[in-house]
Amino acid sequence: MANKALVSFFERLFFKPNLLDWVLIFFLFPLSLLYGLIMLIRRSLTPKKDYSIPIISIGNLTIGGSGKTPFLIALASHYRQSYIISRGYGRQSRGLVEVSHQGRILTDVFQSGDEAMLMAKSLPYASVMVSEEREKAIELALQKGAKVIFLDDGFNRVNIKKFEILLFPQTIKNYMTFPAGPFREFFFTKAFSNMQLYENQEFKRVVKVINATPRMLLVTAISNPERLNPFLPKGVIDKFYLEDHSYFDEHDLRKKMKIADVTSLLITQKDAVKMEDFKLPLSVMQLELQIKNEILEKINHYVGEYAHEK
Hints:
Elements: H1 2-15, H2 19-45, E1 55-59, H3 68-76, E2 82-86, E3 97-101, E4 104-105, H4 109-112, H5 114-122, E5 126-130, H6 134-143, E6 148-152, E7 163-168, E8 195-198, E9 203-210, E10 216-220, E11 236-241, H7 250-260, E12 264-268, H8 269-272, E13 282-291, H9 293-309
Parallel strand pairs: 1-6, 1-7, 2-5, 2-6, 7-8, 10-11, 10-12, 12-13
Antiparallel strand pairs: 3-4, 3-5, 9-13
Helix pairs in contact: 3-5
């Protein structure tokens, strides 16, 4: 309970600070400045390795979700023989794990993590790997004949030569670096990327609810869950949040459904991959990310040009 309260506090501090929060942000500013400087020096001095293959990084500058997973799914769906490499946040394994090979699932969600499993199930022509050491996964992907590699959350992998795409939410209220704010690096380091894309400008989310019912309990384990509010359908009676990447207990959810007197659980696709065997009525928020054609054309030009040069 204390841990959940702490997570809730930092999510408010980072994304929706109130007046008292700004006082704390002021006192944390020296630490924030030091952290940002360390990250800037690291980015500026680290040499980059060229793996002789187009590597596209989908990342963000902030802690927590910004649509990286659905963006990557939408982008990678345009390519065959692509490999997606992720850290595998929330998984109960370590090291390099092959999650899927050209759509064939090779492991379970506990070994892969929820985001990697969602990508694996959503991309029948791609292969997905998770590894703390992205370099090892890149080497294996090359051995297996990858034509293009997508790095999930790869902006901070400063030792890899890649095409950098940064995603930003529509509104940002706190531009401080950690621990005073949600930014992993100074905001101006976005200039190190090849593309800076803003939600509702270069890309937008379209949400459709599958199996909606009259009374739903929203249950989710994503970062900053309040960002779901604009997409919630009618009939949401109550909300229950867990920490990002948490796993669910079917018995506990059944009790919560009974207490709230609801007819189904409303969940995201990321949550759904962890509930596939649950005997519970589920309403799923199916997310499609629409990316402007000119963005897709620029990325495709990079992939084609890189292949031609090599």
